[in-house]
Each structure stands twice: as C-alpha cells, then as structure tokens.
Amino acid sequence: MAKNIGYDDTPMLPDSKWHVHDGKRPQPRVVTPGTCSTQETPGKAPSDAVVLFDGKDTSKWVGKDGGPVQWKVENGYMEVTRTGNIQTKEHFGDCQLHIEWAAPAEVKGESQGRGNSGVFLIGKYEIQVLDGYDNITYADGITASVYGEYPPLVNACRKPGEWQTYDIVFEAPLYEDDKLVKPAYATVFHNGVVVHNRVELLGPTGHRNLPNYDTPHGPEGPLMLQDHGDPVRYRNIWIRPLKGYDE
Ligand code: MG
Description:
Blueprint: E1 50-53, E2 61-62, E3 72-74, E4 77-79, E5 86-92, E6 95-102, E7 117-121, E8 125-129, E9 164-171, E10 174-176, E11 179-182, E12 185-190, E13 193-200, E14 221-225, E15 233-241
Antiparallel strand pairs: 1-15, 2-5, 3-4, 4-15, 5-14, 6-9, 6-15, 7-8, 7-14, 9-12, 10-11, 12-13
Bound molecules: magnesium ion.
C-alpha cells in the first residue's frame, strides 16, 4: 500500500474506528460499471452484479409450484403467459435491483387491468408494474407505486410498448425474537426519475388490506415477478446484494 496517503492525527469519526482521512481505512472494492440500455439494446450489468435474466436464460427462476418457467422467452425478453408468478431460486435481502419491463404495445383494458404485473422484493413487497401512461387508477396502485402504500412522487411512464427501467434500493425489515426492530425501506428510480426516496414501508403489500409487520419473516426472500394476466415483458434483470462498508 502507498505510504502517507492519509492522516492519523485527525479527529476520530463518530461510532467508527477510523480517523478523518485515515490512511489505513480499507479501499473500496473495484467494480467495472455497466452500460445504459437503449430501446433497442439492453445495457450491461456492473461486474459484481448477479445477472438474473440476460434475455435468454431463465435457469435462475422457477414458475408455479417450483416447476420450470413457462413464460414466453423470445427476442431477448420474457413475457407473462398466464402461467403464474415466477421467482428466483436464490434469495436476496438488502439489494440494488435493476429491471426493465414493457407494457403491451396494444392497449387493452383500463385502470388496474392494463399492463399489470409487479416486482416483489423478498417475495412480499410489491413495486407495481402497470401501464400508467394516460391511464387513471387509484394513486397507490399506479406504475411504480409501493402497492397500497405510496404513490410514486411523479408519474414517469413511457408509452406502452416502450422499455422502462426500475432501479430499486431495498432494505429488508429486521426482526429480533419475532419483534420488528427495523422496517423495510425502498428507494426507487423509474426511468431514471426518483419516485420513492427511502420510504418506510408499512409491511408486506396487499390488496384492500392495511399492511402490517405482524407476521415475522426472514431478511431474505426470492425476487418475484407477478403474472396478473397481462402480457408484460421483462429484460435485463440484475441484482447486487448490499452490505455495509468493508470493515
Ligand atoms: Mg401488480
């Protein structure tokens, strides 16, 4: 390691074993950043991401009752086929998730019946997928809502048929001895626009019920994608499990 890169005669940082500008503090791991997607071409994941779906391979997922995924896979995307939700085999907790989706180009239905799907963090907390372009529904169920809890700060929808992105930072809730000690939090960017700024979730999301944390669950779970009967497409899905600073 290079010498004299920092200081050891500076004040200690609070709740830390490091001085301000401490030369011995561990260096951050090096990650090669990914690239952005265009409508035509999905981008690349950062070098340390777990690629969950690359446009062809669904081997990291299971369908109904743990069987193989029956969604249609073609042309670099997978599409909901009324065969049930799918979820990852691997479980994740705190994470950064990137996922791209497109509502059907041919508009059918209205309100919740138009391009409905959903991204469920740890299998329980839904960020709504919906064709919310020029489509009115209840605010806490529109595109990018935390379903039944928070409308997005703004509606940043692209037109039906166009690829859209969610970038989500999720903090799983924490229970100790079946008692909630930390709720879940979510930060969400929709097409690069912040739509949730570390909102405190009220509990697992649901339909027509008041969410709560009464039922303890573990800090990890599968990433689940909802089959709501509409042929929504997904591509370029990657996740980075998050932990704190090294040391
Ligand atoms: Mg949904």
